[in-house]
Amino acid sequence: MPGRYRSYQGVVVGRRSLPSGDVLLKLLTPEGPVEAMAKSAQRPGGRSGRLGLFFRLRFQVYHRPSAELATLTQVVLEEVLAPSEPLRFASAGLLAELAWQGLSPEVAARGYPVFVSGLRGIAQAGDPRLPLVWAGFRLLALAGYAPLGSGPYLVPEGRFAGEPETGAVFLGEQGAAALRAVLRRPGKEAARELEAAPLDRLLEALLRYAEHQLGGMRSARALRRLAGS
Predict the structure, then answer these.
(1) What residues have CB less than 8 Å from 203, skipping those under 6 apart?
(2) Is 173 exposed, middle or buried (0-12, 13-18, 19+ CB in 10 A)?
(3) Quick one: average pLDDT of 185-205?
(4) What's the mean per-residue pLDDT of the chain?
(5) Helix (H, G, I), strand (E, B) or coil at 196
(6) What confidence score (pLDDT) does residue 3 get?
């Protein structure tokens, strides 16, 4: 019947294998988050190999009116964005969790390209913290959580401050200027600012800010351990 089949492009940001051989998927798309079940994906001849974390896909789902989840019916693998090193993988996990929680359907069309660009940067950049900080704060801003004010401290509640406050991260003038560039200037210009900025403090600021604004971030603990922050 019309309306039951829908086609998307998107990135796998979560997957859970079930004893039945099915795979439960979370996919971030330009239209917002999508959850779907890949039936028998893990059985011989199944599609599990095309459904890895951080794989970019074109796919179709079938929405059965009586079912809670859509069923994956077609899938084409377009790009593997999965990094191989632990720090890069943890960085991609943090960005995916942030995007899944923060990108509502109303802003997903603008946030999806930032998310994909951030994943590519995490996989390829010399220091994965740089694209993570850039994409993470850009996504938070698109979700309506851009910090306000000015000053060398970033307060998790949502503003810059001139003096230390509880939970605030000291970025210094250079770090605060780089963050403002991330929020207001084109990507290449912001990246140049970040290259000279204190990435360790900016990463900790991102983690605290995301944890406060979006709730607990499960990937933050592993990322802190691997990044030594």
Answers:
(1) 129, 132, 133, 223, 227, 229
(2) exposed
(3) 93
(4) 92
(5) coil
(6) 54
